[in-house]
């Protein structure tokens, strides 16, 4: 059983990200959305993920954000399996705008970051 109470703070986040042989299939689907996806992102680098409709770009981000758990493979952040991090502290690292977003009657900052403190 893996520990999943490791705290991570924004200041500790080096930006080192690695997908190792990630595969994932949505329940009820007859084919995998992602199959053996492997890549490394070095700190300070930016990445654009480009692909055909339905090729799995959004799924990749959803797995990174732990909205789903991969069926196989590992996602490492700072060299640590993301499942080992305390979920709440891990979630504070991300501000994701999905393509099917809803704009609420708040400031842009609140729309992106929620009602908490906006830096
Ligand atoms: N909730 C879901 N349930 C079942 N299948 C899904 C679900 N979400 C996505 N899929 C399927 O998983 C595959 C990958 O979808 P995904 O949305 O990740 O692709 P995408 O690259 O982001 O596409 P787009 O360019 O249209 O945004 C597609 O075949 C899609 O139909
Ligand atoms: Mg998408």
| CATH C-level | Alpha Beta
Give the strand line-up of the largest sheet. Answer: 2-1-3-4
Q: Which molecules other than protein and nucleic acid are bound?
A: adenosine-5'-triphosphate, magnesium ion
Q: Work out the helix count.
A: 3
CATH topology: Rossmann fold
Separation, N- and C-terminal Cα atoms: 37 Å
Count all strands and give the number.
4
For the record, the CATH architecture stands as: 3-Layer(aba) Sandwich
Instruction: Output the structural class.
Output: alpha+beta
Mean pLDDT: 90
What form results from the Cα inertia axes? Answer: globular
- Compute the CA-based radius of gyration: 15 Å
Q: Unreliable runs, pLDDT <50, ≥5 residues?
A: none
CATH superfamily: P-loop containing nucleotide triphosphate hydrolases
In quaternary terms, these chains amount to single chain
Please describe the biggest sheet, giving its number of strands, its sense, and whether it closes into a barrel: 4 strands, antiparallel
Percent of residues in helices comes to: 10-25%
SSE arrangement, N to C = EEHEEHH
Q: Would you give an account of this structure?
A:
This protein is of the alpha+beta class and 119 residues long. It has one domain: Rossmann fold. Helix content is 16%, strand content 20%. It has three helices and four strands; from the N terminus they run ββαββαα. It has helices at residues 57-64, 87-91, 108-113; strands spanning 17-24, 34-41, 72-77, 80-81. Strands 2-1-3-4 form a four-stranded antiparallel sheet, covered by helices on one side. Strand 3 (72-77) and strand 4 (80-81) form a beta hairpin. It is globular, with a radius of gyration of 15 Å. Bound molecules: adenosine-5'-triphosphate and magnesium ion. Residues 57-58, 99 line the site of magnesium ion (MG). The site of magnesium ion has 3 residues, from helix 1.
């Amino acid at each position: 059983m893996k520990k999943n109470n490791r705290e991570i703070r924004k200041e500790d986040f080096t930006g080192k990200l690695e997908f190792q042989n990630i595969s994932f299939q949505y329940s009820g689907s007859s084919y995998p959305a992602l199959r053996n996806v492997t890549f490394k992102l070095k700190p300070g680098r930016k990445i654009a993920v480009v692909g055909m409709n339905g090729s799995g770009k959004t799924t990749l981000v959803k797995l990174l954000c732990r909205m789903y758990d991969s069926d196989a493979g590992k996602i490492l952040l700072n060299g640590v399996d993301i499942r080992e991090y305390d979920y709440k502290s891990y979630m504070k690292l991300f501000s994701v705008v999905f393509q099917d977003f809803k704009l609420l009657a708040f400031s842009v900052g609140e729309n992106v970051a929620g009602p908490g403190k906006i830096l």
